[in-house]
Specification:
3 helices; alpha+beta; four-stranded antiparallel beta sheet
């Protein structure tokens, strides 16, 4: 989200309540359930993906997880584990979903696998080259 002006400062917003949406609050944020691993910044930078928690592998078959938060001013969440990236929408329930995904990976109760595409099948006596241009 690099289309924001470089001079943007949340504290300069006309409404103080809007500026407070950029403040890290380890008690009201849904990610606070990840304490003590949850380490929000004092003030989030508008639109920037910020690492807020690193959850270690908890069980033998678990995975380490990294959790990011993006504020603009709504909060969006990203969970990374085992080379996969999960992005949520905004809102408290999406933050709670990010917590559940992070915990599930860390304890080994959630796995993700890539599904290989099924091999192409062709009518008997045909192959991809012979079918090319027959539409």
């Amino acid at each position: 989200m690099s289309d924001r002006p470089s001079h943007f400062k949340p504290e300069a917003l006309p409404m103080p309540s809007m500026a407070s949406l950029y403040r890290g609050n380890e008690f009201s944020d849904p990610l606070s359930q990840l304490r003590p691993r949850y380490q929000p910044p004092e003030i989030f930078e508008h639109g920037r993906e910020t690492l807020v928690a690193e959850v270690p592998q908890i069980a033998e078959d678990g995975l380490p997880v990294r959790v990011f938060e993006i504020r603009c001013p709504a909060a969006f969440y990203v969970v990374e584990a085992d080379g996969f990236r999960f992005e949520t929408g905004s809102g408290h329930s999406c933050g709670e979903l990010a917590v559940k995904i992070a915990r599930a990976f860390a304890v080994g109760s959630l796995r993700v696998s890539a599904i290989a595409p099924a091999p192409a099948t062709y009518p008997e006596g045909e192959d991809a080259a012979s079918l090319e241009g027959k539409n």
